[in-house]
Amino acid sequence: MDPLHHAIAARRDALIALTQQLIRIPTLNPPGRHYRDICEAIAARMEPQGWRCEMIRAHGSPGDSEAYPRWNVVCTHDAGRPGDTVHFNSHHDVVEVGHGWTRDPFGAEFVEDEDRIYGRGACDMKGGLAASIIAAEAYVALNPDHAGRIQISATADEESGGYGGVAYLAEHGHFADVQHVIIPEPLHKDRICLGHRGVWWAEIETRGRIAHGSMPFLGDCAVRHMGAVIDEMERTLYPLLAGKHTAMPVIPEGARSSTLNINSIHGGAREPEDGYTGLPAPCVPDRCRIVIDRRFLIEEQLTEVKAEVRRLLEKVRAERPSFSYEIRDLFEVIPSMTDKDAPVVRTTAAAIERVLGIEAGYVVSPGTYDQKHIDRIGKLKNCIAYGPGVLDLAHQPDEWIGVGDMMDSARVMALVLSDLLGTDSHSPAPVA
């Protein structure tokens, strides 16, 4: 067993304990609870080992407030020798618990005969954060005078766009001197995620005229207008999107086509407050809104994605008297995909083959994650997602992470550091 492999193996109990510690801090988003607590816990671990840890609040970012400040931590190990900077970035926020749990969502229960740790965020992505910390600790213990710098960041709000986390760091130049980024999202320990599809969120509102519900002919029902919009989507837009395919290795297979989800629909009287037992007022609704979530491919242009919906709405307007609508952009992300020949991709692929004895697979995520900000704002293309866990478990009840998967991923990440930054007795090896 080589020294680096042995150093990771010796830290198995530490990896379990760290993962449990992170899960037990309920960093729920929304609203953004305990963000500072988890950043302080990471800093308290790293600083005694010689890491410089910077606490960064994303002042003015979406969601940031005195009640729920958006805190991030960036920990850096710099031995003073020239070389590249390798940055491991993980988001520390988790989604709501939801229903259907059979275990304490924040109990971080370790079931030894299953080799699993359960809890909200175990898979997405506190297990990956813990694995990157253990990998870096093991590497530094063997190579305290390594070349370059190692950074580990735990950042806010990835689950709600990442604007209080990686986007803020990128806007303020924190990736300016970084050459390699690995994001330990749960995309299987034998796969390298090169990027993600694009996204456009928009709100469509149809308008009508309010009237008494007993005389709807005196009004104009905005809900019926929206029904015509949705019907046109079913008849023309959905078949059009299903016929678009990408060369991107998106998983699962269904996401290799363009997709559209109707995220919500609201029309007419507001939902009554809990406990209200009366009937709604008899009115013709004069407003109806839907939010659409359009995921698009690297072969598509955002302008055309938007134009498809606009043409559909104009077609409905031509067919329906008094039809009126407004469309508002909410959120957009351009697709991102790192080249398979990028240094961090080749180095990680070589490490996977050494640790697991198999060739690395290459995938693209159907949804976005923080690579978008490193690419578009940070202007750094040499970025991948690689980490332990099964993506299908994310956001599910009884979410879990496998300890063996974390150990293997930690070995891979430690080898990446060794290959990119070298050992104390050797210069960094060139990436083949």
TrEMBL record:
Where does the source fall among the domains of life? Bacteria
**What is the native source organism of this protein?**
Paracoccus sanguinis
The Peptidase M20 dimerisation domain, residue ranges: 195-317
Q: Which GO-annotated molecular functions does the record name?
A: metal ion binding; succinyl-diaminopimelate desuccinylase activity
Q: In which pathway does it act?
A: Amino-acid biosynthesis; L-lysine biosynthesis via DAP pathway; LL-2,6-diaminopimelate from (S)-tetrahydrodipicolinate (succinylase route): step 3/3
What family does the Swiss-Prot or TrEMBL record give for this protein? Answer: Belongs to the peptidase M20A family.
Q: What class of enzyme is it?
A: hydrolase
The protein's name? Probable succinyl-diaminopimelate desuccinylase
E.C. number: 3.5.1.18
Q: Which UniProt keywords apply?
A: Cobalt, Hydrolase, Metal-binding, Zinc
Which reactions appear under catalytic activity for this entry?
A: N-succinyl-(2S,6S)-2,6-diaminopimelate + H2O = (2S,6S)-2,6-diaminopimelate + succinate
Q: Which cofactor does it need?
A: Zn(2+); Co(2+)
PROSITE patterns recorded: ARGE_DAPE_CPG2_2
> What Pfam families does the annotation carry?
M20_dimer, Peptidase_M20
